[in-house]
Amino acid sequence: MSTLAELAAASQDLAEAIRGLSPDPGDAMRLLAPLAALQPSEATAGDVVGVAQAAGQAAAAALCRRAALASLARATAEASPPSYEAAVALRDQVCGLLAAEEVVAADAGEDATALALRDLRAAVAEDLTRRAADLARLRTVTVSEPLPALVHAYRLYEDIGRADEVSLQADAADPNFIGGTFRVLVA
């Protein structure tokens, strides 16, 4: 890579490749979130070379974070959260990452970048808030003895076809023994 433009393009291509290769938007978000929070290591030397190295590392990290944030926002738009609570948690996570980078950009005097990040954060928040409103909420279920998912599905929904959903929501190691306290979608 010989130019900054090539480095920027490579960072964007990497983030989009991560998003594109992930079979599920949730997987893409899990992979992109650490990149969106990337922090460079501290330069050890306090001389001119160390200061220049730190500035270069900070700029490269900002470039990677911003490319990851753009891809993360795209993955968020493709995501299908299963519940209201999942959509709100996703919104808060992604908007938190965007807000943190917005502060970094503003502190660096990159006003146009800070404004673009603010606009992206507002769009992500609006999209997920709108979609969350139409999603079912979770409720907490407490049972005294472990029962099969089929029994829980019938008792909760009068539909044994939702046994896999109950097992997934309860994060059950064995769908034949689901007990204690777990959360399921409201019918």
Short description:
The chain has about 190 residues and is mainly alpha-helical. The protein is built from seven helices and two strands; from the N terminus they run αααααβααβ. The radius of gyration is 22 Å and the shape is elongated.
Helix and strand layout, with pairings?
Elements: H1 4-21, H2 25-36, H3 48-78, H4 84-107, H5 111-132, E1 138-147, H6 149-157, H7 163-169, E2 178-185
Antiparallel strand pairs: 1-2
Helix/strand/pairing category: mainly alpha
Mean pLDDT: 89
Gap from first CA to last CA: 55 Å
Let me know the number of strands.
2
Helix content: 55-70%
Shape: elongated
Order of helices and strands: HHHHHEHHE
How are strands sequenced across the largest beta sheet? 1-2
Domains counted in the coordinates: how many? 2
Question: What value does the Rg take, in angstroms?
Answer: 22 Å
| Fraction of residues in β-strands | 5-15%
